[in-house]
Design a protein that fits this description.
Elements: E1 34-36, E2 42-45, E3 58-63, E4 69-73, E5 78-82, E6 88-92, E7 105-110, E8 115-120, E9 125-130, E10 135-139, E11 145-150, E12 156-160, E13 176-182, E14 188-196, E15 208-212, E16 215-219, E17 225-229, E18 236-240, H1 250-262, H2 267-278, E19 291-294, E20 300-303, E21 312-318, E22 323-329, E23 334-338, E24 342-348, E25 354-363
Antiparallel strand pairs: 1-25, 2-25, 3-4, 4-5, 5-6, 7-8, 8-9, 9-10, 11-12, 12-13, 13-14, 15-16, 16-17, 17-18, 19-20, 20-21, 21-22, 23-24, 24-25
């Protein structure tokens, strides 16, 4: 498969400071060198003239220790496995409500050393598979999840659906959601607290979470900061990025609407939704970031460019030496994982084909 070119990679080191800490002198900060391959090492995608679409809608992707890539195909209601050469090896699951079946799979991730967790948003269930794709069990996680993340050791973080959703007369920006820490059985261990859920409209701010083995990261995009909570919820630290407010363009709005309506599997529903979103008020500024992730070295990565830009800009906040690393990806990319030596993303090209991209990440 032809690799997708990224263009030049930008590396920048800038000062950041945790809340309450003393500013770090730039003369004592050691520059951090993290680079991304100019082209994707692996590019899994459909081609014109294919007999059958590779993806109905690739919503989430994870990479196993052996190099296998697992794609949660939301509209095909299953998990698609690809080897380290990008060749399709198996499809797991089908539409249904029985063991190992999906109605609406929206998230997949490795969880712990040898488990694959997949979330069925409609059924409110987590389905657990081994790395070979064999179904093991399922459970209903506490916290009524909207967004889920899992650490390498199996710590689950949940951003719940907002209280009163569907029954409250409050606009979305006034609703709050719980953030919880769960064990691998989906039972609540710690309630971190309540956070704003989202603003209305395709360009509204949304809360995002990430988890590592030492904490939960929560970003509301209200400011250029992400808050790190200890796993017991007893302490918190703010990591601040170097982001400025940007006025939305027509391209930003169109791309945001395109992404929002894409979550509806029915084409007729998508066409009904589009004029509704187009009629909504446009905010003065785009959200300061649209994704929050954390990697194996506790570097917090923010996607700081809005949709509709010529490339995707990503900032990595490095708390140990108070610096920021900036990388560049293809336009409108959604990062799925950042491992020790790789970055996994989904990108949709101008024809409408989705690409699952694996990049080489080098740390020096």
């Amino acid at each position: 498969m032809k690799p997708l070119a990224v263009g030049m990679v930008l590396i920048t080191c800038l000062g950041i400071c945790a809340a309450g800490c003393q500013p770090t002198s730039t003369t004592t900060t050691t520059p951090v060198d993290i680079t991304l391959s100019d082209q994707a090492l692996l590019d899994i995608h459909d081609t014109i003239g294919s007999d059958e679409a590779l993806f109905a809608f690739a919503r989430s992707v994870t990479r196993l220790r052996n190099g296998t890539i697992v794609v949660a195909d939301q509209y095909a209601r299953g998990l698609k496995f690809f080897n380290d050469s990008g060749e399709s090896t198996k499809v797991v699951g089908r539409r249904g409500r029985g063991p190992g079946e999906f109605e609406d799979v929206t998230w997949v991730s490795t969880c712990g050393r040898d488990s694959i967790y997949a979330f069925d948003y409609t059924r409110r269930m987590v389905l657990v598979f081994d790395t070979a794709g064999s179904f093991a069990r399922e459970f209903r996680p506490e916290g009524n999840p909207h967004e889920m993340r899992c650490s390498a050791s199996g710590i689950l973080a949940v951003l719940g659906l907002p209280y009163g959703l569907g029954s409250s007369q409050q606009p979305p920006e006034h609703l709050v959601s719980p953030v919880l820490v769960l064990n691998m059985q989906g039972q609540s261990l710690v309630r971190i607290g309540d956070v704003p859920f989202a603003e209305n409209g395709p360009l509204g701010k949304r809360t995002h979470i990430a988890v590592s083995d030492d904490g939960i990261y929560v970003g509301t995009a209200d400011s250029a900061a992400v808050v790190l909570y200890s796993l017991d919820g007893s302490s918190q630290t703010a990591l601040r990025a170097n982001i400025v407010n940007v006025t939305p363009t027509a391209a930003n709005l169109k791309a945001a609407i395109d992404e929002t309506v894409s979550y509806a599997s029915n084409a007729a529903v998508r066409e009904l939704q589009r004029p509704q979103f187009e009629s909504m008020a446009v905010p003065e500024f785009v959200p300061l970031y649209r994704q929050v992730l954390v990697d194996t070295r506790r570097i917090v990565w923010l996607v700081v460019s809005p949709l509709g830009e010529p490339f995707t800009k990503v900032q990595g906040l490095i708390p140990d030496d108070s610096s920021v690393v900036t990388l560049r990806l293809p336009p409108d990319a959604t990062i799925q994982e950042i491992g020790e030596d790789y970055l996994l993303a989904i990108h949709q090209d101008s024809i409408g084909f989705q690409h699952v991209l694996l990049f080489d990440l080098r740390r020096q």
